[in-house]
Amino acid sequence: MGLSIDKVSPRGIPPSCCFCRKQIKRGSLHTINKVVSGQNRGWKEEKHYHFSCSAEALEEKLTIQLLAIMNNSEEVSKKEKKKVKKVMKRRGVN
Question: What domain range is 75 assigned to?
Fold first, then answer.
């Protein structure tokens, strides 16, 4: 499982951020954290976050992974990258 970024689909119900509980706008990039859950570890749960919320909510290891993904993606704006770096610095994540 793991972390990925993607745009919100133009169809269906838009996801809500697991941190701030607000709906994520259609077409905007966001973080998806796929987690294995369930008694037999057979269920997959997807948690959706805004970029700035994911920098706050995810553990340090995943936040560093998010920054690496964002740096390698051409779709993520410099403004979004700066926001995440600022939140990471405030949290004390290197």
Answer: 2-91
Condensed to tens digits (0 to 9), the pLDDT of residues 11-59 reads: 999 999 999 999 999 999 999 999 887 777 677 889 999 988 998 899 8
Considering only CA atoms, which of 4, 24, 70 is closest in space to residue 84?
70
Burial class (CB in 10 A: 0-12, 13-18, 19+), 55: buried
Q: What is the CATH number of the domain that holds 63?
A: 3.30.1740.10
Spatial contact of 14 and 21, defined as CB atoms under 8 Å apart = no
Q: Cα–Cα distance between 66 and 63 in angstroms, integer?
A: 5
Record the pTM. Answer: 0.84
**Number of structural domains in the chain:** 1
